[in-house]
């Protein structure tokens, strides 16, 4: 919540002097506008209260602790959308017990200040809203994770500073092998070799930089050496994310020894490509570079670049990494689930 936030505070407790003290302290808050109500009867409030956004309860636990602490669970059951902050005496154990029962925070009566109360209440509202969103979106996130785990290539989502946010089942296998790509206790994704690790970090930074429009397509891919395999891990980087979450990237990781067995015919039908263009798109998806594909097929670089331009035009993309992302998150990739 920002400085223009408003919130309704309902104090549930029998002591009028406590209500007056809390009301006065909150009236001096500079980071939000609080309205204050004193509710003397808990049972009446539970029976008539309604969930509303921007409300928070301060529950008095300074007296009759054993009876009142059960009210934390009761409020969570009857009015689940309103966060609860408890007011305790000097025994912090009461506050910790209340948090275990569902309270968002606790305030110690002898340590009350305007800044401390307002910060606690605003944070309680924000955390509670976050918990509600998590519960509501959990099934959707589970479904999305299941789809990513079905993809026949490694997918790693990272922040701008290379910290891993998510990896699918295929990527987990590569990371657990610790050969080519590794993840440390700091959650940073690195290459096994220090020089390649620096190159990977630079590749990520360059991918997320919008200033340089003259980079070639090869500048968004890297091959990482593996000690236990004759084949490298091929990594292609594509930018994702905007807004509050900030910039990040998706790393598509493939093993040339385990080519993605997608249907060229399906790719052609889905995106209106010719057979030659579909073959090139699949080659890129498997992590091959343009010059390697040109040499393998016995055609000129001019030919494959011309085909690539047609792929860009037909798929409304401008980078090889965007083509790979399009194919790997589309229907064609899900047809290869039997490989996992």
Automatic annotation (TrEMBL):
- Which GO molecular function terms does the record list? DNA binding
Q: Which residue ranges does the record assign to the HTH luxR-type domain? A: 270-327
Keyword list, A-Z: DNA-binding
Keyword check for DNA-binding:
yes
The name this protein goes by in its record: DNA-binding response regulator
Organism, by scientific name, is Sneathiella sedimenti
What lineage does UniProt assign to this protein's organism?
A: Bacteria, Pseudomonadati, Pseudomonadota, Alphaproteobacteria, Sneathiellales
């Amino acid at each position: 919540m920002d400085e223009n936030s408003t919130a309704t505070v309902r104090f549930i407790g029998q002591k009028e002097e406590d209500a007056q003290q809390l009301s006065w302290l909150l009236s001096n808050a500079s980071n939000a506008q609080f309205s204050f109500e004193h509710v003397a009867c808990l049972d009446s409030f539970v029976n008539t209260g309604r969930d509303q956004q921007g409300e928070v309860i301060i529950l008095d636990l300074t007296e009759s602790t054993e009876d009142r602490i059960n009210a934390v669970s009761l409020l969570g059951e009857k009015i689940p959308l309103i966060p609860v902050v408890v007011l305790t005496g000097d025994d912090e154990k009461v506050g910790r017990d209340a948090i275990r029962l569902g309270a968002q925070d606790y305030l110690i009566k002898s340590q009350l200040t305007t800044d401390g109360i307002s910060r606690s209440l605003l944070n309680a509202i924000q955390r509670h809203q976050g918990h509600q969103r998590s519960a509501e979106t959990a099934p959707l996130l589970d479904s999305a994770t299941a789809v990513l785990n079905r993809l026949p290539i490694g997918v790693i989502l990272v922040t701008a500073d290379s910290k891993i946010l998510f990896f699918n089942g295929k990527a987990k296998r590569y990371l657990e092998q610790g050969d080519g790509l590794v993840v440390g206790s700091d959650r940073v994704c690195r290459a096994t070799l220090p020089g390649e690790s620096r190159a990977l970090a630079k590749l990520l930074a360059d991918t997320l930089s919008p200033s340089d429009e003259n980079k070639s397509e090869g500048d968004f891919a890297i091959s990482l050496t593996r000690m236990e395999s004759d084949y490298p891990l091929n990594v292609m980087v594509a930018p994702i994310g905007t807004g509050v979450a900030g910039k990040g990237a998706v790393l598509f990781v493939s093993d040339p020894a385990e080519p993605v067995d997608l249907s060229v015919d399906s790719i052609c039908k889905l995106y209106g490509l010719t057979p030659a263009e579909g073959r090139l798109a699949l080659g890129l998806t498997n992590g091959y570079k343009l010059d390697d594909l040109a040499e393998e097929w016995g055609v000129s670089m001019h030919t494959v670049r011309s085909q690539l331009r047609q792929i860009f035009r037909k798929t409304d993309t401008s980078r090889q990494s965007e083509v790979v992302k399009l194919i790997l998150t589309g229907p064609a990739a899900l047809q290869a689930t039997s490989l996992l």
